[in-house]
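ok so I'm stuck.
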Amino acid sequence: MSFIHLCTRLSPVMHLSDFISYTVTLSSILLDMSTLNASCHCGAVTIQAEKDSVKGIVKCYCRDCQKHLGNFAPWVVCNKENSGIAGPVGEYASSPTVKRLFCTSCGSSLAKSPNEGSMLLVAAGCFEQPLDLEVVKEVFVEAKEPWMLSK
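replied:
not stuck anymore, here's the structure
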């Protein structure tokens, strides 16, 4: 329910239970504005990232991402310290410098975590809300398959 929709539901006479429900819903909307929420396909794993620490989207065309996802990978660049992951997460080293995180229940690809630095790259498709983020970089563009090119 949108904030505007909630405001139009207010009336001069409001029952206590309606007010409590309104307040709880409004609080969750306001909290959600500062946090980006993501999850795996089955919902067992959840990821939260503070919106202010998100840098944008990186589109990666490397062969590892192509083999892992069957396509290029749009990653949301988050700060590890300002992000949290909960649930049954598995990981493996996809290269000497990067590990990939996945849900052990449904197998969804969740994130890519470089061994060095403070970056966590979360799969853009896992986010619950529409992302108002810009593509800040495209990497390994030379590995693009011909069908990946825009027409």
